[in-house]
UniProtKB/TrEMBL annotation:
GO CC list: cytosol
Localisation: Cytoplasm
Cofactor requirement: Mg(2+)
Protein name: Hypoxanthine phosphoribosyltransferase
UniProt lineage: Bacteria, Pseudomonadati, Bacteroidota, Cytophagia, Cytophagales
Protein family per UniProt: Belongs to the purine/pyrimidine phosphoribosyltransferase family.
CDD domains: PRTases_typeI (cd06223)
Record organism: Algoriphagus ornithinivorans
Length: 177
């Protein structure tokens, strides 16, 4: 299947059922790792809103708190060097287990910035869940605890990820042709 967004064509890359199955597996791992404990799932807006909604419903027997922040760092199809401010970190995370939920880790610059910022608030632990990871673009070596899919270094849209604001609602993940 193909979609056209503005000037670009995308082809289906990861299907809805595959994503669902993988998130169930990640949810089970998170449930095991944090069994009976309190965990703040911290979604990074906008891209994580779909994975967040699906993943949090795959987590069981954990005392879940849900919260969202925003960092803007990307426009068009190439990663920008500059990461801006973290906005909306209102809930106290001191002494708490935090699970950052992202749509994608590409160069890792945004996540690195976020990790540094969160650590100044002295959380008990910080873990990372990301639907997608581009290992060939990654420039850091902090661990990614829960990775949905490792993908090649090509631009993708759908399932929360946008191309200039469009395509987030697509139920599958599409890759630039
Ligand atoms: P970073 O390079 O800092 O790891 O990624 C920053 C942000 O760029 C991600 O949170 C995501 O919003 C965006 N991004 C990176 N790769 C892609 C991609 O292939 N498709 C889309 N739609 N966004 C991406
Ligand atoms: Mg993101
Ligand atoms: Mg984007």
């Amino acid at each position: 299947m193909e979609v056209q967004i503005k000037d670009k064509s995308f082809q289906v890359f990861i299907r809805e059922e595959e994503i669902k199955l993988r998130l169930r597996e990640l949810g089970n791992e998170i449930s095991k790792d944090f069994h009976g404990q309190e965990l703040i799932m911290l979604g990074v807006l906008n891209g994580s809103f779909i994975i967040f909604a699906d993943l949090c419903r795959e987590v069981q027997s954990v005392k879940l708190l849900t919260s969202f922040i925003r960092i803007s760092s990307y426009s068009g199809t190439e990663s920008q060097e500059k990461v801006k401010e973290v906005m909306g970190l209102n809930d106290p995370i001191e002494g708490k287990n935090v699970l950052i939920v992202e749509d994608i880790v590409d160069t890792g610059i945004s996540m690195n910035f976020l990790l540094k910022t969160l650590k100044t608030h002295n959380p008990a632990s910080v873990s990372i869940a990301t639907l997608l990871f581009k290992p060939d673009a990654f420039r850091f070596n902090y661990p990614l605890n829960y990775v949905g899919f490792e993908i090649p270094n090509k631009f993708v849209v759908g399932y929360g990820l946008d191309y200039d604001g469009y395509g987030r609602e697509l139920p599958e993940i599409y890759q630039l042709k």
